[in-house]
Design brief:
Strand content: 25-35%
Mean pLDDT: 92
Distance between the termini: 33 Å
GO molecular function, one term: branched-chain amino acid transmembrane transporter activity
InterPro entries: AAA+_ATPase, ABC_transporter-like_ATP-bd, BCAA_Transport_ATP-bd_LivF, P-loop_NTPase
Structural class: alpha/beta
Helix content: 25-40%
Radius of gyration: 17 Å
Number of strands: 10
Number of helices: 10
CATH superfamily: P-loop containing nucleotide triphosphate hydrolases
Protein name: Urea ABC transporter ATP-binding protein
Organism: Roseovarius atlanticus
Keywords: Amino-acid transport, ATP-binding, Nucleotide-binding, Transport
Low-confidence stretches: none
Strand order of the largest sheet: 6-7-8-3-9-10
Length: 231
């Protein structure tokens, strides 16, 4: 279980998150939904140690990870697929995946499991990451994160700019990870995509907690989504 307790964070002197608290259970998909600038990506970066934790606690299965340096957070068991993917563009698909495997000392068996999820990558192992299509790059970023065998998985707008077939492929993998007991925190602007996979939706507004509701409740009443996300 991934938990944030009263988290305050931001960029230098500019505070963005204000007493934010979240809980993502093992085997659950929680979507963080809010307007642009509400603090969604800041939340992800704070969990990963890429932004300073001003105060509050971040725990994974009860272990305090809020004080860890960024390179130690994946080793604790958190996989991160950032917006923009951040692949090693000049390295091959195989080399990008090897970097993921090395984080927690995973072996060839894990690599095979990951490639079974993304058969298209198996055909492109020697290809430089920068030559892949946008959808294939998203697959590679996701596969690399899965190579660490994460307890929790953070995805920041994974379907942005992808064609429907690629979106469906990513969706299937996310659902499979949930079935395997991974705690998944998803940032996604497409409400239809959110409601197709999420168990619960946590709204964020100006860096603060909004309502937390089941996806089923939002399917029945879209007015709440409009309140937090509508223009």
């Amino acid at each position: 279980m991934l938990e944030l307790h009263g988290v305050n964070s931001g960029y230098g002197a500019a505070q963005v998150l204000r007493d934010l608290s979240l809980r993502v259970e093992a085997g659950e998909i929680l979507c963080l939904l809010g307007r642009n600038g509400a603090g969604k990506t800041t939340t992800m970066q704070t969990i990963m140690g890429l932004l300073p934790l001003m105060s509050g606690r971040i725990t994974l299965d009860g272990q305090d990870i809020g004080s860890l340096p960024p390179h130690e957070v994946p080793r604790a068991g958190i996989g991160y697929i950032p917006q923009g993917r951040r692949l090693f563009a000049g390295l091959s698909v195989a080399q990008n995946l090897e970097i993921g495997l090395q984080v927690r000392g995973a072996g060839k068996d894990v690599l095979e499991e990951v490639l079974d999820l993304f058969p298209r990558l198996r055909e492109r192992m020697d290809q430089p990451a920068q030559t892949l299509s946008g959808g294939e790059q998203q697959m590679l970023a996701t596969a690399r994160a899965l190579c660490i065998q994460p307890k929790a998985l953070l995805l920041d707008e994974p379907t942005e700019g992808l064609q429907p077939s690629m979106i469906e492929a990513i969706r299937r993998v996310i659902v499979k990870m949930r079935k395997q007991g991974v705690a998944i925190l998803l940032v996604e602007q497409r409400v239809d995509a959110v409601l197709s996979v999420a168990d619960r939706v946590a709204f964020i507004e100006n860096g603060r907690n909004g309502e937390v509701l089941s996806a089923e409740a939002l399917r029945q009443d879209h007015s709440i989504v409009d309140r937090y996300v509508g223009v």
